[in-house]
Amino acid sequence: MRRLVPATVALLAIALGGCSSTSATGPEPNPNIFPARYQNEIITSLTTTLDDPTLIRQAVISDPVLRPAGKEQRYAVCMRFDSRDQQKRYTGLKERIAYFYAGHLNQLVETTSPEQCAGVVYKPWPELEKYCLAKNCT
After folding, report:
1. pTM over 0.70
2. Is residue 110 classed as helix, strand or coil in its secondary structure?
3. Low-confidence ranges of the chain (pLDDT < 70)
């Protein structure tokens, strides 16, 4: 009986190991699917990361373009705006870049060098300027 238990455990481990193969998860997603809802995803992220996501001024945004992200190419969106801190003081224009993977926002950070958004064409972004958490944003 003592010999039967280890053999049974070993057979059970092999059987369960076969169920966890990586081929069942499907193919890897295309990392460079165009981010169709990029503005909405960025606004949603900014509302949780900015000190005060209301009454933003001078908001501009670029269209998604494939840009270098490390050794890969990823869709990226550049933006620039003036937001407020916790004391409701404007902090000055800051440029940020959003990286997308498989059509969805993956990372949103402040730019660290002018090359990250070099050559982008900005357009007005009134949707961000009009964002309001409550009925009365002041």
Report:
1. yes
2. strand
3. 1-24, 133-138
